[in-house]
Predict the 3D structure of the following.
Amino acid sequence: MNGTIRVGNLFGIPFYIHPSWFFVLGLVTLSYSSGLAAQFPQLGAALAVILGLLTALLLFSSVVAHELGHSFVALRQGIDVKSITLFIFGGLASLEKESETPAEAFWVAIAGPLVSLLVFGILTGVGIAISWVQLAPRAIAPSGPLAAILGVLASVNLALALFNLIPGLPLDGGNILKALVWKITGNPYQGVVFASRVGQIFGWIAIASGLLPLLLSGSFANFWNLLVGFFLLQNAGNAAQFARVQEKLTGLTAADAVTTDSPIVCAHLTLREFADERILGWQKWNRFLVTDDNGQLVGAVSIDNLRAIPTALWSETRIEEVMRPIEQLVTVKSDQSLMDAVQLLEQRKLSTLAVIRDNGVLVGLLEKASVLNLLYKKAQANAA
């Protein structure tokens, strides 16, 4: 998520907070402090606010525990967890990749709700024990507010588990449904598309439940449902679209999407030869891949590199003297899956990648436009 603030690590996992979280933290603190002040007037306003803030932080700690449940199971499967982020709608554990089997995907998905149910059980048990203390002849004074806070935490964890078990993406229940459809059909992408459609249905239901009271009576009582509905609708749609792209890329390698007229120059060319023979002929390119006499990739050169050298020296300066060395380039192997290459483009926020063989020989340049062109040609061939 853009604009997130890194606040540290949790068991080696980067932990982020989105600015929207602070808004929800304030609302939850205000809500629970008001409730505690009304239920226990002896607390006083200041202590009620402190306990309200503590309750809010514990609630979000429950969300973090939920996401850690997903994360620990993913780590056990050898899947790296890139981050855990708290935001306005709860939390999100960002995984490096999908599970390799439907059974593994199921356990990653179910782990979060199971943790929430476990926390609910523990807090309920502690709350019952505190209630017994209240009935004792010498009851501890703070036990009333403490029992109330534990009751809230228990109920929220139960609600967190049950809500996330709704069978539609991007919720955990949607990922469970995806795993089941994947198991039945043998196709993970069909599972994503099916679970996304269910998620969109629940999104429309949530939007309707928030919009109807607003239109009919002007009530904002279910306004939160409206926001949740839009969240479900958008993310379910994005998941389905991404799954369709993944399915189309299945079986393709990085070499399949290499640009046919990749901008490649020899390291031994002078800048004058480069300017005369290449730049004028390939005006759409500002950056060129550089190879040696054996065709191996050794670096890259751009128009800006030429501008840094006086034109009087172009005839005696070779490309290899001004190029960026290969160590500074991001490359992919020619037999690497095209899906991995596309994900690398997105993760690194790149527009192009150099594609090389195992021996370092350059195959060509892979760019987003060439991937889209390949998908278009494949779609046309299937239609024919």
About this structure: The chain has twelve helices and eleven strands. The CA atoms of residues 353 and 366 lie 5 Å apart.
